[in-house]
What does this fold into?
Amino acid sequence: MSARRSRWAAFRSAPFLATVTGLYLVWSLAPVLIAVLFSFNDGRSRTQWQGFSLRWYVSDPLRSVWNDPSLHTALVHTFRLGVVVTLITVPLGTLMALGLDRWRGRPPAAANFLVLLSFVLPEILLAVALLFVATTLTGTFFGDVVRLGTVGQVLGLVTYQLSYPVIIVRARLLTIGAHYEEAAVDLGASPVGAVRRILLPMTMPAILASAVLVFADVIDDFVLVRYLSGGSTTEPVAVKIYNTARAAPTPALNAVATLVLVASLLAVSLGYLAYRLLTRGEGGQTAGIDVFAGEA
Amino acid sequence: MAEPRQRPRWLWPVLALPGTAWLLALFVAPLYVVLALLFGGIDPILRRPVPVWNPAQWDPSQFRYVLDHLTGSQGFFGPPLVRTAIYVGIARALCVLIAYPVAYYTARIADRRRGLLLAALIAPFWISYMMRMLAWVNLLQNDGLVNNVITLGGLWDTRVDWLGGHASVVVLGLVYGYVPYMILPLYAGLDRIPTEMLEAGRDLGASRFQTWRRVTWPMSRQAVLTAIVLTSLPMLGDYFTADLLSGNPSTSMVGNLINSAVLTPGQTGEAAAFVMLVLLVSLLPMAVYVRATRAGEEIRT
It folds into this structure.
């Protein structure tokens, strides 16, 4: 009885707000769930349910994700970008966060400003700028480095994602404070040793969190990867969806989108669990969920 | 007690250097290339844009061409810009109307299942934007679920060609796409307000609404502003929502102008001009965001 009362207590104390929140959740999640459901449809339709099958994932000999080379390529390319960009961005951003947090003066303030700017700048502006570097500066060093295809995509995505680890790791450094590494230095550790033995382990939860966030964000990216792709072999899933969504696609498109969705949510959930495990006993009401909302 | 050992000054700059250099080379320099192309020339034979690096030699004719076609009888660039302002304005207002109550409920009222609720609110954040638009294309296409429902399964012929160029559908897409980005900063802002402040309001005899108006709202205004900035900026560069949910020139936004100019050979200057326009419009909200973040950091340190 008392359990039931407390279950409905929140609803009773604000029925209007609770209803709005409930309706919002349905509206925000139901369309996606329906799209996922129809990836398991036995027929060609994306609106008429014709029974459950894995036809669009594996068994259709021509158009399933497994057998259609274009979908297959897009999926592999999506994950390749996710892994490579995460491996570059996270170390680069972590070092930058350590440096910017402890270095005092004007230059780090300017660099920090640059990080925030790259975080809020509309993505299309960076995408167009890099595309122009690749297409109009051919023959120069700059234009040859930033070239369309995987290389350009990786360079662009790292630039766009760099602010994530910097912001998240810095937020963690602020909560740690400076006394642990000062103690280590007082006890005879070298400055580099203090960073390696004290700061890196203590910021590990934030590093891990930013890694899964960067990965999940990269496999969902559309704007940068579309402009910087060098043809159909370097078009990831998001671009595939854009190209075919309005051109009578089969449920295989829903299937490939579902696979990316599962990977993305899985990465974030596992990352979150690991984060909780690493920060066990530190308290905090939201238990770090705000970090996973990109809201550090 | 011995003086604490002085840590070397070189360590932190060295750690920060690679990231900073990366941003200078691949963030600042490319934006300068856009400027150099915008105020540069065009190779008369190859019709290729030629960047001019020295600002003293910049030629404003390409920029002026775009500005001249914003208004008047030749003003074909004007309508999409006005439309962008209207769409983004409406979408932004709807986002606040939806996001504020949801964030308020989550932060203030939901207690037992708050973690689960937060996870559900965050989920769309980690679902690809294209997947979410594809979901709406599925629902709104001519034989889609929405039409099936409003015709009661074909009983009436009240089919609507939802994806044929409706402004309202594009605005719906923008709201659907960007509202999660608004809920989270709002939640964070509301969650930070100390409970004691609200209890004090209630103890002094204010009703819940009065407490909200006199305490919560003033204390959450900064979060609302940040949330508006965080949702408006990506909307300004959005072209894919209009493309997927309408595909009709009558609903094209400034992002569509950029996109089509980028993909058309010989219109590099135009694309560069639009990029600079969006950048100029974005500067003020970006400054607001950066200032708010800085202020927050100063309080925390």
In short: The CA atoms of residues 18 and 24 of chain A lie 10 Å apart. Chain A has a mean pLDDT of 84. DSSP finds 14 helices and no strands in chain A. Chain A touches chain B through 103 residues (CB under 8 Å).
